[in-house]
Amino acid sequence: MIGIGPFRILCLRSPMKILLAVILAVVFILLGTRVVSLYFQERQLNQTLSDAEAKLQKAQADEANLSAELQYLQNPSNLEKELRAQFNYKKPGETMVVIVPQRTSTAASTTAR
Fold this sequence. Notes:
Elements: E1 2-4, E2 7-9, H1 15-73, H2 76-87, H3 105-112
Antiparallel strand pairs: 1-2
């Protein structure tokens, strides 16, 4: 050992010690690269998990909305009301009246220009 006090350096005089030091360095480098690789893989998997959880929450909200709409439309009067509003549905014998809004004077003057 060379050095004074707590700062002692191991003398690498024999070829066996040099070989051992090289092998240990290679092992540490390989382990370090594997640890870094696993770290980045974990981050990617966590991001994928977060994305999947967000999609699941959205799907659950969509399911709740669709279930509420289904329950609403199972009532025949609500179904008829929606058919009338969205598809101009009328019963036989009824007359449908469509009211067209009157154009304002500014709209008429801008189209005349």
